[in-house]
Each structure stands twice: as C-alpha cells, then as structure tokens.
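Researcher: I'm preparing a figure for a lab meeting and need a structural model of a single chain. I don't have an experimental structure, so a prediction will have to do for now. The sequence is pasted below. Please return the structure as tokens so I can convert it later.
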Amino acid sequence: MARASLRENLVAAAVEQFHTHGYAAAGVKDITDAAGAPKGSFYNHFASKEALAVVALERYGASLRLEGLRDSSVAPLTRLRRHFEFLRDENIATEFNRGCLVGDFAVEVADHSEAVRESVRMSLEVWADALDFAIAEAQQAGDVSKTLEASTLARFVLSAWEGALISARADRSARAFEGFFTVVFGLILR
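Model: Understood. Here is the structure written out token by token.
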C-alpha cells in the first residue's frame, strides 16, 4: 500500500483541524504537527493557510456524499432523507462538536477572505444543485408539490439544515434535527 503524500497528509490534517477547532484557532503549526510534517514543508505545498482552506473545503465537500443525491436508481425522497440522515448521524457521533465546515467557514472566514468566500459560495451552490436534482425528480414523480421551483426548495432545505446544525451544536442534542426532518419531510417536501 502506497504511503500518503505529505500534501495529502496536510490536507487531511487541515480538514480535521479546521472542522474541530475552526479556521482562526487552527494554526499552520497545528496542521503540520497533526500531519507529522515539518512546519517549513507547509509552504512547499500551499502559498498560505487561506489557500489550504480552499482545498480543505473541496475535500470536505467530497465527504458529503452528494453523488447519492443524483442516484436515480433510488427514489428521490429516499435519497434526500438518507443524505440528511447520514449528516445527522455524523453530527450525533461527534457529540455535536462539529457542524458543517462549509457553514463554519461562511460564518468565520468569508467576510475576511475573498478566496474562502468564493469557495464557500461554490460549495453551497454544488450542494444546492445536487438537492435540486433530487427534488426535481421527486416533483416529476408527483411526490413533491410543484408549487415552488425545485431550486428554491433546495436552497431553503439547505439553509434549514445549516440552521439545524447550529441549533444542535448549541443544544448539544438532536432536537433540532428532529424538527428539521419533521418540517422538511412532513410538510415542505410533500
């Protein structure tokens, strides 16, 4: 089995450090220590912590399993529910100590870094597009009302999810997730 490259170790460590501690609290030394790399080697791979944050957001986005939302072999509402159940379960498993790295960076970094803001915007757009795809298929199947456009519903559902994550972290409980599933799947996506 091939060893992971130093760059790969830095990216993995950055995702972990940013997601656990936040952008400001995760210093380059913290990231290099977690990666088992000398601090000086960081700049051989990344121009700045900000540049690494953009790559970390891309990596985190790949972990969201968005491809499952486009799997037409599974009923659209089932895909949507499974997607959010997976994310909910991840948050419960971490005892509500993490939210969504995209949302965290939107709140913590986007006002101070144009590169990170743009990466957050693109991450949200890709996620909303995947939700839009599944919702549109549910509408075509007659499982979701066509009163609102799928893209509008997708952006609302994504915003509701990000809000539920914030509440779950503050409460250190799944109560906000219960509300999300009840309202989204019981009322909105009908």
